[in-house]
Write a structure and sequence with these properties.
- By secondary structure, the chain is of the alpha/beta class.
- It has helices at about 50-70, 110-115, 120-125, 135-145, 150-155, 165-170, 180-185, 200-205, 230, 245-250, 310-315, 325-330, 370-395, 415-425, 435-445, 455-460, 475-499, and strands at about 5-10, 15-25, 30-35, 45-50, 75-80, 85-90, 100, 160-165, 180, 190, 195-200, 215, 235-240, 260-265, 265-275, 285-290, 295-305, 340-345, 360-365, 400-405, 425-430, 465.
- The strands form 7 sheets. Strands 16-17-15-14-20-21-22 form a 7-stranded mixed beta sheet, sandwiched between helices. A 5-stranded mixed beta sheet has the order 3-2-1-5-13, with helices on both faces.
- β20 (about 400-405), α14 (about 415-425) and β21 form a beta-alpha-beta unit.
- α12 (about 325-330) crosses α13.
- The longest helix is centred in the last third of the chain and has 26 residues, at about 475-499.
- The protein starts with a strand and ends with a helix.
């Protein structure tokens, strides 16, 4: 393998688009990032401008490719990772979207999802998902129903639906490829994750015509080639995965029991369950982890709605801290028995509760409660919630022996140590924190033959630090008991508030 070859990873996120060129050993050679506008046209609605997403994608890719060329690195191909569930419908002739992209956070279809709740068990059996506006299916239905003339055009085969990866591939290939991968398809509520096909019963339930659907490929596959006029030459698009699955792959979680947990604004934990799609009894999502070489690997996924957002609230919401970095020193200034517990239900509680009505609660305050208590309680809450996910996953059939972490929060050593103490497993923090982008690059490199196999990819992984449990077990038991009491009280309050 030539050290002068690189892979361009397009990381199309919720608030920005990034393009990163990696060497084959996983070293970052070039990076470019552009933020784009968030639109909130109504309460609970979140939209993106598809043209702005396209523009930032092309601009960042050109910039990163140019930077790489100046360093003597030639891009051999492209991997794409994307914000999942965000939904687009566009005209097949013009390539123009009929409406803004409806973002994964959008709640406009809540009433419809509630109206078919009696079908949830059947939907979950096929998709591994819950009936929720979070997923793509109800968004597609809304677009076809609410945009003038859209349903008629769809019935005539003139419209195309896709998640962001699919839209970008369509544009990059000049409309020659209408495709997606199994991970993105598995987040739509229209895809049967067991037989790996769009499901006619689900299409009927959500009133989505088959004609709008993309072809579903593996994660390492031939997704077409870019138009030569975009980047100076045609480049193969060879790897695609939704952002959390790309991080699972980037963390080299290739064996059953491997668990990665990403701590950004929220937290997403994915557990490799091998070739078994486990049916969770604890409201975890069953999803496709990745599909390569004709084999699909499944995962259990748990979502914590607010992680880094807890610290943002301390800084921007109530002014307890001036900078997120202060949280570590403040947390370290207190002992375990400080007595304050935060249940961060700022946007409801995610897995394993899935309670949208829960609200944030703070327990144990006294006149002596200070900013240090707020900071430590906010960090501890993330670890307690991860413990709840870990326990749910273990109860569903697979326990993890370690957790591979990434995301902005895990630069905090205290958080990583406390996480290890509470989970009672080693916490491994990688040297390369760009796990989502590198996952897409690995997939592309695998398809292009730049990596021989998963073992070859694994050989490039470097761990920057490992944190091992060292807490007294009596103290740990007391802390977890306090946490459970606080969660129970918060859920009880949410029930009372809803009456």
């Amino acid at each position: 393998m030539s050290s002068q070859q690189g892979i361009l990873s397009i990381d199309q996120g919720t608030t920005s688009t990034r393009a990163i060129v990696f060497n084959l050993d996983g070293t970052k050679v070039a990076t470019s990032q552009k933020e784009f506008t968030q639109f909130y046209p109504n309460n609970g609605w979140v939209e993106h401008d598809p043209e702005e997403i396209w523009k930032t994608t092309v601009e960042t890719c050109k910039d990163a490719i140019h930077q790489a060329q100046e360093k003597g690195v030639t891009v051999a191909g492209i991997g794409i990772t994307n914000q999942r569930e965000t939904t687009l419908v566009w005209d097949r002739e013009t390539g123009q979207a009929i409406y803004n992209a409806i973002v994964w956070q959008d709640r406009r279809t809540s009433a419809f999802c509630n109206s078919i709740k009696d079908k949830e068990a059947a939907v979950t059996a096929k998709t591994g998902l819950l009936l929720d506006p979070y997923f793509s299916a109800s968004k597609v239905k809304w677009l076809l129903d609410e945009v003038d003339g859209a349903r008629a055009l769809a019935e005539q085969g003139k419209l195309a639906f896709g998640t962001i990866d699919s839209f970008l591939i369509w544009r990059l290939t000049g409309g020659k490829k209408h495709v997606t991968d199994t991970t993105n398809a598995s987040r739509t509520n229209l895809f049967n994750i067991h037989d790996l096909k769009w499901d006619k019963d689900l299409l009927a339930l959500f009133d989505v015509p088959e004609s709008v659907l993309p072809e579903v490929l593996q994660c390492a596959d031939d997704f077409g080639t870019t138009q030569a006029n975009l980047f100076g030459k045609s480049l193969p698009i060879a790897g695609v995965a939704g952002d959390q699955q790309a991080a699972l792959f980037g963390q080299c979680c290739f064996n059953p029991g491997d668990l990665k947990s990403t701590y950004g604004t929220g937290c997403f934990a994915l557990l490799n369950t091998g070739d078994k799609a486990l049916n969770s009894q604890h409201k975890l999502l069953t999803t496709i982890g990745y599909t390569i070489n004709g084999k699909t690997t499944y995962a259990l996924e748990g979502s914590i709605f607010t992680a880094g957002a807890n610290i943002q609230w301390l800084r921007d919401g109530i002014g307890v801290i001036n900078d997120a970095k202060e949280s570590q020193a403040l947390a370290e200034s207190l002992d375990y028995d400080h007595g304050v517990v935060l249940v961060p239900g700022f946007a409801g509680l995610g897995a394993p509760h899935w309670n949208p009505d829960a609200r944030a609660s703070l327990y144990g305050m006294t006149r002596g409660t200070s900013q240090a208590h707020f900071a430590r309680a906010a960090l501890e809450a993330v670890c307690y919630q991860t413990y709840d996910l870990q326990q749910a996953m273990a109860s569903d059939g697979i326990a993890s022996s370690k957790v591979l972490v990434d995301g902005g929060m895990v630069a905090n050593d205290w958080l990583c140590q406390f996480l290890s103490d509470i989970l009672q497993v080693d916490i491994q923090r990688p040297k390369n924190m760009e796990t989502t982008a590198i996952g897409a690059a690995y997939l592309a490199g695998l398809q292009l033959g730049l990596y021989k196999n998963l073992e070859d990819i694994m050989s490039h992984k470097q761990i920057e630090n490992t944190f091992s449990p060292r807490i007294d077990q009596g103290i740990r038991t007391t802390l977890l008991s306090q946490w459970q009491k606080a969660v129970d009280a918060t859920l009880a309050f949410s029930e009372g508030a809803a009456v």
